[in-house]
Amino acid sequence: MAELKEISSNKMFGGYQKVFSHQSKELSCSMNFAIFLPADSADSKLPVLYYLSGLTCNELNCVQKSGFQQFAAKHKIIVVCPDTSPRNIENLDTSEFNWDFGYGAGFYVDSTNEKYKQFRMYSYVTSELVDVVNKNFPALPDKQSIFGHSMGGHGALICALKNPGLYKSVSAFSPICNPVNCPWGLKNFTGYLGDNKEDWKAYDATELVGKYNGPPLELFVDQGSEDQFLKENQLLPNNLVDAAKVAQVPIVYKLREGYDHSYFFIATFMGEHIEYHAKFLNN
User: Fold this and answer.
1) Are 116 and 106 in contact (CB under 8 A)?
2) Which DSSP string corresponds to 74-130?
3) Tens digit of pLDDT for each residue in 154-186?
4) Residues 175, 206 contacting (CB under 8 angstroms)
5) How is the chain split among helix, strand and coil, in percent rounded to 5?
6) Which pTM value belongs to this model?
């Protein structure tokens, strides 16, 4: 494990919650990721579930707030939580950066803007990080799934739709479902991808679902009814639901009465999501 540096390790539910850093070739900087290794990983290889966090978050938000570890231990699943963007890039003009663009807001795209050429979170998540995990931990390389929250829910959906067969299952808490038509998407896609809106569609779940061609894939979208960003038309889940129905791609959409956009919502239904992925990963 020479290329990894262990930052922390805490025993939890019989396994270990760890954080590592490594030098990323895709992002040209040092990156952190958290990984939960159930007790069973000491004796056998296990499936892997990737969790992508949202705006302003890093590798620790889900680790510290969601309570996923008890469910991952029960179902014998390794859970990996990467950071949400490259960090501390030398000689980078960060004058345009704020809470919803730049550091902590990689949006899971591969930037084509030379100014932000190191923002390649899509390739990092779907390729480089997967390779690091499979080479350094007791992971089953043919059994992995993905989920996430908000910006990370968008990331999970596009990673699954753009890579047929790579993930056994996908789910999302309050995802940004149609970024080409919401303020967050307009801001980030313009910054990372330029002004050509046709290029943006390659990273939009609502646009991608109609083009999906691969093994059967069901989309599981979980949404709180009192989510402020739902009301501000940042998330647009109904657009994805409608597009999936037209494309005849199965979608489960659960609108949870009274829940908001926070980790209180995520923690409430985290067990259900882990159990959902376990059906695909442990069969």
Assistant:
1) no
2) HHT-EEEEE-SS----TT---TT-BTTBBTTB-TT-B---GGGTT-BHHHIIIIIHH
3) 999 999 999 999 999 999 999 999 999 999 999
4) no
5) 40, 25, 35
6) 0.97
Residue with tokens 């390779």: 131
Strand order in the sheet with 78-82: 4-12, 15-24, 29-37, 78-82, 46-52, 139-149, 170-173, 219-224, 251-256
52, 156 Cβ separation under 8 angstroms: yes
Residues involved in catalysis: 150, 227, 261
Q: Which helix (H) or strand (E) holds 12?
A: strand 4-12
The residue to which tokens 């791609």 are assigned: 249
157 membership: H or E segment, kind and range: helix 151-162
User: 């007791």: which residue's tokens?
Assistant: 138
Q: In angstroms, how far is CA 248 from the centroid of its own chain?
A: 24
Compute the residue count for the chain.
283
